DNA sequence: TTGTAGGCGTTATCAG
DNA sequence: CTGATAACGCCTACAA
């Protein structure tokens, strides 16, 4: 089956290629009967417009890039669903890029993004630098960062859809202060350091405002295959804090298992909060307390924001940082 | 920053665009000093070749499409990692498509794949029909299906990288027959019916060969929000089979929780096997027995196969169905 | 309402 | 070794 082009359709329908182009693009100047004739030819030949050629002619690809860390892939599923659904609505194609330490450095990804001439890009706030964002900016590629908050650098062509994790941690900490508890640990997740930094900052702020110092940031190196392995070791010499906060489900579950096996009970000896919700937190006994974060919506909002930026919608000019709300969802691993 | 083109570079380096094109494409006919001059101009101007224009000129986009069900996204993470890593090695870009009932029907996805003029496509064996694959075939788009086995239709331009789930279930069943156990249930997972069919077929074959009939295919409709909700209800009137097989972790864990709460113990009252491994199966107590399926490798192999098909490698002409091996990994929910 | 011709940014083929 | 020039497939003034 020969690649069939607009010329073939034109010949078949006995019109010029311009006319074919018009019916493809829903121009309303073409007469009804010729439109029909063209559409028939299109169907008969199975013609599909070449998006590449269209892209060249229009300097517009109607595709946007999404880039995220390979490791966070499974965790970002819902955000991605939101992104994809909205992209679909606006008829955008998605170029998908993953970054990982070894094979695909962020720099290469940026390179291919620029070459692809995508109209815009969605960046997950994991592992890119200020510098890399500036490159995107230099090439005038509208960008929105989704996940955690980005610093307010002068770059105003980048949007941001985020959860204020700093505030979340601040509030969480104060809630325990009110109950007279200040023995709080935060377990590091190396997969998303920017979020960790913000959680840590929020706790530090709360402690500082209360004339105390936050010291229990639990970090462990990668010689431990998992947080479970680490915590099992850890609990041989430490007892858990009254409150343990983790970012992701696997760390929370690891904490529960390791703690339980070390003879501690949740929530009596230690309360446990996992910041990011997942269905697995309902599968443990007791169920793990968490926050409801509107993940799907974050994706949807981010993509919608990007599409607006792409059409130069005035309404987003100075209004492209969107703070998404969250709410605390106590379950069985906390006493509140 | 004006979009800078090959002409700008040519002028800057005082050569023709043809020469610039040559140095971009590593042609070895260009003299050393002019190459240097051109490269300098490229760097100075920040020029990046326009992949769209290249695509038009070459009738080759060096991008491949990946399409998977939106719902299975988190579960396919490892396969995707394998796909992405190999794609990166071969410098292929990835167009990412998701299908879901409401918003994006497979038909639309196919449409956009064809328009995009991608070089090839990777299909997850979830929710597409024979017919849709034939469309891809009509447009001569090399395709490889990853996941479970596809039926041997006449279409030889489609590769397949798969786990033989039929055989897996057959062996599993026979292993229990040898122990004198034939009270075996298989819990349906609606998200991947093609895999379910194959598991079911394998069990049926084993039963039939032993003069018995397999009857305990447990299916439940979507009025139940989760398999946990269903099983909790189910165990009020049924006792679990001696052996329960599920496809995915969440079903296995649901079975454990619902069973335990109904007064049954695993593995004494019921042994439990989850076909697809995940880290969460190690987080339960007891740990869930499972199969090791080389997910990352499946992705890597699939993408490698596709790249070979794209360069018309003879070695894959009649050798594009690749059966991946798996192995049983008993843990604490089984007695073997 | 329709057709003609130039342009989008590259690559490839020929001359020189 | 380098430079014109014709594709690649489509869109869009501009003319008719």
Automatic annotation (TrEMBL), chains A, B:
CDD domains: HTH_LacI. It comes from the Bacteria. GO terms for molecular function: DNA-binding transcription factor activity; transcription cis-regulatory region binding. Keywords: DNA-binding, Transcription, Transcription regulation. It holds the Pfam family Peripla_BP_3. The keyword Transcription applies. The keyword Transcription applies. Residues 4-58 form the HTH lacI-type domain. PROSITE patterns: HTH_LACI_1, HTH_LACI_2. This is LacI family transcriptional regulator. It comes from Catenisphaera adipataccumulans.
